């Protein structure tokens, strides 16, 4: 990863080759947290070794677990059956998922912990999680503005709640469920629209009884307090959110054929691939198999003539992190791509709707911004801009992929943030034939 203040992507020849996606970020965070809460040894293979997950691993250690790196992607966590008060501040860096899930996990124990992060994380709303943890009995003291880090948690003495999601959010659901493990009573979360279910799946692997019942297009998840976790083996498959970047480049650069091996195919994570196919993308999946309790496969993307589509709003939860790269590919599609019902994008690492609109416009693409979404009119992509990323790794990578297919080079600022989720991104794209420097 470059330490330069900027990175630039230029159109070159076709992209070809086979690469492996980094380990899934969601599962990597959870493996560290659940391993720390458990009793005994948790062996993890395929862990994403990006800055965000490393921050969560350090937090697990600060809460009393023993955390060891055994080799590339291979880690061992020895848990002591619960979390203890850390001696110092829990610095979560840029990891929004990490801090919100850690708050939920820690809230159930009689401990005191102060959470903080970098400038970007300090600007992201925590109330969407902490409000519900306070309903359960946890207490949060805010050093500055309420709802923003740094914050000190006083945990323990929780009572179960019945929570109904108004916006599909795996982070909110997961924080409540993790707190519910040590709450009095049965905690339930009702989801009118399904969000990713890695927490439920992984809790079962650690020996927890989790009841999931379908209800309409969503489900109700229930778990009883007082359950104990037992260390286990976790195999982390490739992250579909990361695989999206080299695959998108394969779709938009003429003559390209790019294969990404070992990609998770959980149906709650494949909304982008479904949308691309509706746009006319040549995507094929081979070698389907099961790893870490998840369906995985090898995905090949070949250069395709894309057309604009209306993305169903009900698909948002299955691809909320992929809308930036979808918008970048939509810039090359003939016609209009409508993306609505994605207001959740505004409270990610940045206001991703605003940044994608600004970046695409700077590159000569017609974009219309709405409060809960945006509309891209594709076709010709002039490029030739320097894009502000606001420390957001997905904004940076999306515009670098755009630059590989644009008429003129596209530059992004603050490229060091890419390492938070995708260490080796630049090297991977260069290995496929991309001009990124």
From TrEMBL:
Binding-site list for phosphoenolpyruvate? 25, 96, 124, 171, 352, 394
**Top-level EC class as recorded in UniProt:** transferase
Reactions the enzyme catalyzes: 3-phosphoshikimate + phosphoenolpyruvate = 5-O-(1-carboxyvinyl)-3-phosphoshikimate + phosphate
**SUPFAM superfamilies reported for this sequence:** EPT/RTPC-like (SSF55205)
This entry's Gene Ontology molecular function terms read: 3-phosphoshikimate 1-carboxyvinyltransferase activity
* Active-site residues annotated for this sequence: 321 (proton acceptor)
What Pfam family is a match, any one? EPSP_synthase
Cellular component GO terms held in the UniProt record: cytoplasm
Q: In which pathway does it act?
A: Metabolic intermediate biosynthesis; chorismate biosynthesis; chorismate from D-erythrose 4-phosphate and phosphoenolpyruvate: step 6/7
Annotated region Disordered: the residues are 1-26
Name the family the entry cites.
Belongs to the EPSP synthase family.
Q: How does it assemble?
A: Monomer.
Q: Please state what the protein is called.
A: 3-phosphoshikimate 1-carboxyvinyltransferase
């Amino acid at each position: 990863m470059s330490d330069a203040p900027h990175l630039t992507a230029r159109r070159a020849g076709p992209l070809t080759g086979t690469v492996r996606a980094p380990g899934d970020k969601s599962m990597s965070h959870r493996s560290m947290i659940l391993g720390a809460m458990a009793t005994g040894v948790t062996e993890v293979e395929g862990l994403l070794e990006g800055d965000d997950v490393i921050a969560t691993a350090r937090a697990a250690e600060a809460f009393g677990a023993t955390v060891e790196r055994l080799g590339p992607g291979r880690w061992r966590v020895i848990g002591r059956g619960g979390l203890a008060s850390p001696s110092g501040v829990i610095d979560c860096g840029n990891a929004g998922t990490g801090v919100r899930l850690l708050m939920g996990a820690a809230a159930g124990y009689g401990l005191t912990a102060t959470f903080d992060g970098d400038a970007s994380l300090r600007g992201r709303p925590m109330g969407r999680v902490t409000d519900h943890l306070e309903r359960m009995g946890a207490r949060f003291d805010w050093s500055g503005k309420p709802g923003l880090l740094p914050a000190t948690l006083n945990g323990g003495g929780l009572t179960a709640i019945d929570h109904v999601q108004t916006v599909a959010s795996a982070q909110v659901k997961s924080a409540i469920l993790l707190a519910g493990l040590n709450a009095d009573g049965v905690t339930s979360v009702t989801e009118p629209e399904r969000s990713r279910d890695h927490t439920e799946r992984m809790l079962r692997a650690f020996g927890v009884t989790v009841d999931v019942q379908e209800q309409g297009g969503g489900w109700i998840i229930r778990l009883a307090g007082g359950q104990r976790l037992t260390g286990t083996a976790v195999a982390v498959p490739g992250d579909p959110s990361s695989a999206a970047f080299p695959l998108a480049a394969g779709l938009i650069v003429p003559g390209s054929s790019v294969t990404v091996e070992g990609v998770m195919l959980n149906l709650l994570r494949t909304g982008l691939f479904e949308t691309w196919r509706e746009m006319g993308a040549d995507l094929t999946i081979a070698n389907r198999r099961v790893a870490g309790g998840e369906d995985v496969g090898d995905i090949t993307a070949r250069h395709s003539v894309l057309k604009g589509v209306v993305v169903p709003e009900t698909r948002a939860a299955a691809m909320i992190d992929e809308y930036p790269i979808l918008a970048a590919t939509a810039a090359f599609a003939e016609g209009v791509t409508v993306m609505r019902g994605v207001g959740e994008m505004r409270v990610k690492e940045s206001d991703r709707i605003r940044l994608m609109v600004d970046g695409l416009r700077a590159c000569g693409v017609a974009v219309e911004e709405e409060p809960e979404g945006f509309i891209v009119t594709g076709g010709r992509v002039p490029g030739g801009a320097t894009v502000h990323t606001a420390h957001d790794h997905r904004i940076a990578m999306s515009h670098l992929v755009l630059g590989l297919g644009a008429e003129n080079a596209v530059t992004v600022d603050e490229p060091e943030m890419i390492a938070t989720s995708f260490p080796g991104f630049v090297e991977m794209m260069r290995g496929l034939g991309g001009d990124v420097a």
